[in-house]
Design brief:
The protein is an alpha+beta fold. It is 30% helix and 38% strand.
Amino acid sequence: MAVRHRLIKAGPSDVWAVLADGHRYAEWVVGTSESEPVRGKWPQTDAAIRFQVPLGPLRLVNETVVRRCEEGVALELEAYAGILGTARIAIELRPWGEHCLAIVDEHPLQGAGGRLHNAGFEALIQLRHRTMLARLARLCENEVGEARQASHRQPTQSSAQGVAGAGHA
């Protein structure tokens, strides 16, 4: 089982907001180029999104189905990868002070992926998770940073009004 974690400098609710948006799946999942919800209301149980995997001039279209959703805490997905079979991808979010500890656990379930699973394949999954968690962290941390900047911006008022008579002869 490939298990990897990352501290994301955003709250669990900020991370969940990204995970809960099926249109953003391709922004943080390595290997995908586009995603869109196709069944149900993502990320509720049994909802599905369709995603594309570009392979040179070809584009493979696959699907990911939500198998378990505990809002704000856990999301378990079954990703279909054609002839490679399916994989279980579990994402857990834990509060860590003001931040979020994201834990990803992935392993093959059915098909060739399960039969071919070995230490080399496990190492590739670990690399994929490192990149995936880095993307997720960047998205969440950027959004939190932008929200903070927006809340700190105050409308600038030109203070052409001075003390009455000041600077006049």
